[in-house]
Design a protein that fits this description.
Layout (H helix, E strand, L loop, with lengths): L5 E2 L12 H10 L9 H21 L6 E4 L2 H8 L4 E3 L2 E2 L1 E7 L4 H4 L9 E4 L9 H11 L3 E5 L13 H10 L3 E5 L11 H4 L3 E5 L10 E5 L4 E3 L20 H39 L4 E3 L9 E5 L5 H10 L2 E2 L15 H5 L4 H4 L2 E5 L6 H23 L4
Helix pairs in contact: 1-8, 2-8, 5-6, 8-12, 9-12
The chain binds pyridoxal-5'-phosphate.
Pyridoxal-5'-phosphate (PLP) binds next to α3.
Length: 390
């Protein structure tokens, strides 16, 4: 990161975690193919299997149930298919998508449009469980797959996955959980969440970009329609020679996250709270989205009334502060957030929404400086507006 810059956009991507660079470099030095049976191949295989164990420990599943992919987007596409069978019987033909899901779920699933229903969020940003109950009733005999994040990338709101899973399981359905923003930050896993399939992305926890994983928590399920068959790698669910460097880096990042999670959760929550207190003091009219719901310790989504995100972001960036508005995956363009829309946030207010997301490297002085920069940029914009046109 250039000197003097403050990076508060860890939900978009996180800097490399401790041990990741070394793991990646060690993998690059290995010449074997993990599928070869000679010594070189076995060394590469051992590296993949170590990483599998490290990711499995974070996910809370046996290592044999982790499938490496090119990222969360690919993992979502593999998991969200009607071609899943449970104990030999094909049975999932309805997809229910919670209102805050990432585009990789909203756009990336493989169900026919007429079999998909969207579920709204409540104004606090959590899934509307009464809407889920109605959707399960409406599905009737058809068994549903619910796509529900563990935590939202824009607001940080933690979703009621366990409650939703109990409801869905009671009707013979399953839950696919996007755990991309959550399990390296909060003390949850496949067992506590009760989800059937989870998926992850390495770069959100300080691993390399372009690698992720599925955790097939429910052993009764078989995904019958892989995206890439090829040489049958990864239990036949992801053909192609493994991305050894990416996978090794992912493993190191997962291990690091698990080790530091409790400490970092407390530390970052205190910094996030200090940030929000400072924001409220400087802008008493600020809205903090999802503030009444359980949230990730590192995320704050807020709107300063009358200051659009687009105007603010450019000024903040020029002054050395990297934040984001809405989801960074669609960034470059600032467009209205479907998450805030699903929470029934008025469009005028949604246009002012910014997201601060902290990480392992964030220090108290970063928060103080960020508040200072936000104040200065807001003052500059206000002064420009006051200036009579020439
Ligand atoms: N899910 C969530 C919640 C995300 O924040 C992201 C990335 O922004 C993704 C999925 C997609 O992850 P990947 O970049 O690995 O495809």
């Amino acid at each position: 990161m250039p000197a003097g810059r403050i990076y508060l956009d860890h939900n978009a991507t996180a800097p490399l975690a401790q041990g990741v660079r070394e793991a990646v470099c060690a993998a690059l030095e290995l010449q074997g193919n993990p599928s070869s049976i000679h010594k070189e191949g076995r060394a590469a295989r051992a590296m993949v299997e170590t990483a599998r164990q490290q990711v499995a420990a974070l996910a809370g599943v046996p290592a044999s149930r982790i499938v490496f992919t090119s990222g969360a987007t690919e993992a979502a596409a593999v998991a969200l298919t009607p071609e899943i069978s449970a104990r030999g019987a094909k049975q999932f033909d309805r997809l229910l998508i919670a209102g805050g899901e990432h585009p990789c779920v909203r756009e990336g699933h493989r169900f026919a449009a007429e079999n998909v229903a969207q579920l709204p969020l409540t104004p606090d940003g959590t899934l509307d469980l009464s809407a889920l109950a109605s959707a399960l009733d409406a599905a009737g005999e058809r068994r549903a797959v619910l796509a529900l994040q563990a935590a939202n990338n824009e607001t940080g709101v933690i979703q009621p996955v366990r409650q939703a899973a109990d409801m869905v399981h009671g009707r013979g359905g399953i839950v696919v959980c996007d755990a991309v923003q959550a399990l390296h930050r909060v003390d949850e896993n496949a067992i506590s969440l009760g989800a059937d399939i989870l998926f992850f992305s390495a770069h959100k926890m300080g691993g390399p970009k372009g690698v992720g994983a599925l955790a097939l928590a429910n052993p009764a399920l078989e995904i019958d329609a892989p995206l890439l068959r090829g040489g049958g790698q990864e239990r036949g669910l992801r053909g192609g020679t493994e991305n050894l460097a990416g996978i090794a880096g992912f493993g190191a990042a997962a291990a690091c996250a698990l080790e530091n999670r409790e400490f970092e959760a407390k530390r970052q929550a205190a910094l996030r709270d200090a940030f929000e207190a400072g924001l409220r003091q400087r802008f008493p009219e600020v809205t903090i989205f999802g503030a009444s719901a359980p949230r990730l310790p590192n995320t704050s989504a807020f709107a300063i009334h009358g200051l659009t995100a687009e105007t603010l972001l450019i000024g903040l960036d020029l002054d050395g502060l990297a934040l984001s508005s809405g989801s960074a995956c669609s960034s470059g363009k600032v467009k209205p957030s479907h998450v805030l829309e699903s929470m029934a946030v008025p469009p005028d207010l949604a246009r002012c929404a910014l997201r601060v997301s902290l990480g392992v490297g964030t220090a108290k002085h970063d928060i103080e400086n960020a508040l200072e920069i936000i104040g200065c940029v807001a003052d500059r914009i206000a002064a420009r507006r006051m200036k009579p046109a020439a």
